[in-house]
Design brief:
6-stranded antiparallel β-sheet, homodimer, 380 residues, Rossmann fold
């Protein structure tokens, strides 16, 4: 068992030249957000007739009041913040979820749109586009075998288009309420992979992000379901897992992949960690690298054949060999106990795995860290 | 000269089965927006302590006040609206640009994020993802010859991945302040092309959306420039136009294109219409289809060689042959007069072109219509 240390990616300093340009064109009395030199952040909102403006988000444990200036602009400067990506929203006179109109940058998580800012340095720089070669992102539609086309996102590394080489593949799965866009938007997958690969800290690889919620064929706004409000829907009845070999086959047919177990990884967060556990044990010839990020271990629908005989199937999987079985969770995660129970099961059976325990709970902050740590261990 | 008639795409009724599902999961007392059966729209905002809530957007010529209900929810039901995509924002007690937190759908235009809704029927259905085969969208990085990688978006039609055929290419350029994402977000390019191709009204084609603002290498958030606030920046000094053959060459090298003039089209809106005019006359062997959408005709920087000798270059272009030279503008567009002046120039020289005049001004509503009309004329 290892603990995730705050090992800082020192090398990233070499590729970060431009974060000082943040807010380059917008520094005036109503600019927001402004990342200050001491890594505090100033948030501002023009609300001339409001009686109360409060900021909430993952930069603070408690909602923070803003103070009204004479010109009708409300303002808050935080304490210096650790390097990270933070989301925030305002509450104005009891009206919730007010966006910052001075900040054009929003990210959607399930049904919520949130403004964000990034504090530079270590992790924040890793989540920021840098002056490095960028991979390509393709949104494609595939039928994995059930006669219904579903959308997925495929990241190909920077040298893919101009080389003839073949690449290993990481399949990266979202959680309940998420979709094929989640790892890109809030997970910062493209920035993390571009930067790790540019630093030589991760192997160039293809990353495939599926839509694991069988009720929908695509992220909100891309399917023929109209403008429904995204909600916490999931899929834990074996359907998605059973289709997975069809997805792998499609990827192997359409991309220059290395079509072998030792060149395939699968990982997912929460429900996606559950899917990862099930898919990797059900199809033990497919994946040599397995990552359970805050996995919802014991949550499958009852009476599903794919979820039965878990111990025998795990034994078969570990007998066939797994290069890396990586389990990560935050010490405050509501799924901590069932992860501990699962580890006890693995320990008792004598299966080798790597365990990483971080601070915090069931948060994107942790999942970005887990992706970073896991990606650096793959295909070495 | 032809006028764009409100010719309604009757065939689209065949592919629209699911717009009734709009708001399927969100119909309650605070749902917003709700498209009613009579094609009016109800907007709602929970603002318990506000004294005034106003909705503004392109669904109304005047800002519309909402009315407070006893439960603190403000409400407005519009008159029945023509089928279209509409954007809107609220103003609450003098605070501008308030988003609708019940609506997860936003689109960015330059630096503004706006909520939107779609009224079904004719045009609205064309801008909505339908149950048809979808093309793929790739965000790729290319160096067109100046040593700097720039991001672009490439649409490949639904059958691209599983066929071996070669396709014609439409290059589609944004306006000032726009970027390679603009035609997708506000222009609904992917929905329009998917639906037109599915109906047999447009040939399957590749569509390439470049970033024509040389100061930036990518849309905000994707380059190494930090989180700058998008603004109305442009590029009309000949640099972008001069690079264009390098872009065409890259596309021809990396996609299964038909590498001939008769299988290439170029079109753009506003500044992109200017770029289209310049590129097509400067490189008359490249494009057989040319579309100027509300083009900023006489706006180039002075003293740029590429912008000089226009009449001789146009003569050369028309002497070499142009399958379609298509000019469209709204009767209220602030660029109407310079388009009239340009047409007079073409008339005097006796060059054949097609002219489409629509209602309205310099708006995305018109550009979506122009793309639709232009796409149906290509590669026949």
């Amino acid at each position: 068992m290892t603990r995730i240390l705050a090992t800082l990616l020192m090398a990233i300093a070499a590729i970060t030249s431009t974060t000082a340009q943040q807010n380059l064109w917008q520094k005036d009395a109503t600019s927001s957000p402004v990342v200050n030199d001491d890594h505090s952040v100033t948030l501002r909102l023009y609300a001339p007739n409001a009686e109360s403006v409060i900021a909430e988000g993952d930069f603070t444990s408690e909602p923070q009041p803003l103070t009204r200036r004479d010109d009708g602009v409300w303002e808050l400067t935080t304490a210096p913040l650790p390097s990270e990506l933070y989301t925030y929203r305002f509450m104005v006179d009891g009206m919730r979820d007010v966006h910052d109109p001075a900040n054009s940058y929003l990210m959607r998580d399930v049904g919520s749109q949130m403004n964000y800012f990034i504090i530079p340095g270590e992790r924040g720089d890793l989540y920021t586009p840098q002056h490095v070669a960028h991979g390509s992102l393709s949104r494609v539609w595939t039928d994995a075998g059930d006669g219904r086309e579903r959308r997925m996102v495929v990241y190909t590394p920077a040298d893919y288009e101009d080389s003839r080489r073949k690449y290993p593949v990481l399949y990266l799965l979202h959680g309940m309420g998420g979709d094929e866009e989640a790892w890109l938007a809030t997970g910062r997958m493209a920035e993390i992979m571009d930067n790790l690969i540019a630093m030589g800290k991760a192997e160039p690889m293809i990353v495939v992000m599926t839509n694991g919620c069988m009720r929908h064929t695509a992220a909100p706004g891309y399917s023929d379901e109209g403008m429904w409000r995204p909600y916490m829907s999931g899929s834990m009845d074996g359907t998605f897992e059973a289709l997975f070999p069809g997805i792998v086959e499609w990827v192997d047919d359409h991309y220059r992949t290395i079509k072998r177990k030792e060149a395939r990884a699968i990982a997912g967060l929460s429900m996606g960690g559950f899917h990862t556990l099930q898919i990797s044990k059900e199809f033990p010839t497919l994946f040599d690298y397995v990552g359970l990020f805050s996995a919802a271990i014991f949550r499958g629908k009852e009476g599903v054949a794919l979820y039965e005989d878990t111990e025998a199937k795990l034994q078969h999987q570990f007998d066939m060999g797994v290069a890396l079985y990586w389990i990560a969770i935050g010490c405050d995660d509501f799924l901590y106990d069932e992860n501990a129970r699962y580890r006890a099961m693995l320990d008792e059976a004598g299966y080798a795995y790597t365990y990483c325990e971080s601070e915090g709970g069931h948060t994107w902050r942790n999942w970005r860290i887990y992706l970073t740590e896991f990606a650096m261990l793959l295909f070495k």
